[in-house]
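User: I'll paste a sequence; please echo it back and then give the predicted structure.

Assistant: Echoing your sequence first, then the prediction.
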Amino acid sequence: MSVFLTLVKIADRTQAKDQINPDAVCVVKRLYGIDMTQTQRPKLLTELPPVDVVITMGCGVKCPCLPCTLREDRALEDPTEKSDAEFEKTAKTIERKIMRLKSSLINAE
């Protein structure tokens, strides 16, 4: 089983943002050495391939429906406009939860 992860922030059902949150870009580059500006861009739901698993981050945002076989909500607090430490805390929480999910999906085979 291959696990392909795409993180998508949906701010509006019909319009993508013009850029990924710059604070998130900095934290991901610092923690993981990944420059998201080189490999990622905001996407519309219509641009995504079919998915099996949808994980919503909560953040008080009602996410549009995306067909899937497994849906989970993480109910995380949105770190937008907060300190780098809050962004790092959220990134580490997401990482832990994704690694647990990956393990459970692999073990479920």
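The first strand starts at residue 53 and ends at 58. The radius of gyration is 14 Å.
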